[in-house]
Amino acid sequence: MIQLFHVTKYYDGCLALSDISLRIEKGECVLLTGPSGAGKTTLLKLIFGAEHPDEGQILVQNRNIARLGGSDVPYHRRTMGYVLQDFKLLPQRTVSENVALPLIIRGLSSFESRRKVLEALRAVGMDHKLSSIASVLSAGEQQRVCIARAIVNSPIILLADEPTGNLDPQLTTEIAALFKAINTRGTTVMMATHNRQVVEQLNGRILRLDCGHLVSDQGVYT
Amino acid sequence: MKRLWYFIREAYTSLRTHRTSTLIGVITTAFTLTSFGIFLLLYHNVHNLLGQVQHTIQIIVYPKNDIESGKLHDLQQGLKTDPAVDSLTFISKQDALTEFKEQFPEEVYLLEGLGESPFPASLILTMAAKSPTTDMIGNLVNRLQHHPDIDRVRYNRDWIERLTLIIAYMEFGALLVGSILALASVTIIAITVQLAFHTRQQEIEILRLIGATSLFISIPYLIEGAILGAAGGGMALGFLRGGFELFTQNTQGLNVFGGFSSALEFFPLPLSLILIAGGILLGCLGTVTTIYGSLRFRL
Ligand SMILES: Nc1ncnc2c1ncn2[C@@H]1O[C@H](COP(=O)(O)OP(=O)(O)OP(=O)(O)O)[C@@H](O)[C@H]1O
Ligand SMILES: [Mg+2]
Which B positions 51-110 lie with beta carbon below 8 A of chain A? Predict the structure, then answer.
């Protein structure tokens, strides 16, 4: 599903990732941990096609991301969902408009789009706030909407970068449970997090980065 | 369908949130197109005038004195089918003599004893009003002058050459002024769109995040530019129309243009539409120049 071969990434000559090789199978739940600046975000961005590796190859569903042309990147991204720490919703739009955006981009019919939006919102428990304006939602609600937007296209891979970073412990547990549920339904989840609670709750494979090096790769957290 | 709705709404929202810069963009475009339109209007009318004057232009062709009647016939046929020629009148030597006698009855004694008519035969050509390119006339005259059966060609050279010159200057001027103003307008529209673009960086980032192509992201801005341009074009057309009416009303009694003032006319519909299309083109161009650089950022 996702394979990295000796991937190295520099930012202006500064090493961010060094010689990373790994293989992630379909349906896995992968947790990226490590101190700040370790390269977690960088690794996710590389897989997402938002950055290019300086060395090495990245295969996502047998497609070489390192060689992807600029115009292919959007289509690559449509096969994935990406959830960020700061929610990135259109503040003036309603919940359903926000969630429908990926479907509009793909040119889906209104009917099908409405069905999928409702389904995604139901999965995150936000179907009762369909027509609320995004900016009035609470932090936990906003993050749920973001997750709904990320899964509305039924992505094969769901990437998340500190999705609980701005949430209190109670909400963190709820959001982590959502990711767990999404993973259980067969979506490959790859999440960067510092949060010990989330790591324990998700109970997945743990990749530990430190200063751009992959220092450990454990099947299950102990 | 849903996409189209999305694009239009985005463009509308953007135009509304940047009312001041939208207004500036529209006014600049209107100004550009008005200035250009004044030129176009002048050009259009001078061209019209040329068409009218052209019709009064006569070319007088004198065939060689000893020309055979067969060759004279060929010459006439050739001229009749020439696209620049409207009508052709043949005046024989005898006709010329008769005409002279009619016009100057007191001078007839001068011709006594000459026997045959001393006047050369001639062909009088009037020019077609349609497709009045001075080049065509110049070419025709040139050809006739080198024709083996023709002695001499006479025509009112002044008019043609002066008008040709005016037209050439106007074409050059319109091109120069038009391109400078167009550049200004494109720049202003580019700035307007850029403003919209920058304040919506967050939104574009989100679109990138969910896999929107550059085209998808830029279409609302293209629509925005086109609307700006079209509004500018429409406004310019209004200015021109108003100015034109004012001008013709004020000059009607004065007869400053030697009677030509009444012949002044506004753009026909196609030219008006071209002006608006020009506005749209400027608007899109402004957007494209903005977006081309800005869309290359990453997530
Ligand atoms: N756009 C950039 N330009 C320059 N340097 C960058 C850029 N993005 C990241 N870096 C650097 O690359 C290194 C890895 O950054 P990255 O964001 O991947 O770390 P991280 O593990 O996600 O950290 P955190 O836990 O704080 O989010 C850091 O040293 C960072 O300063
Ligand atoms: Mg990070």
Answer: none
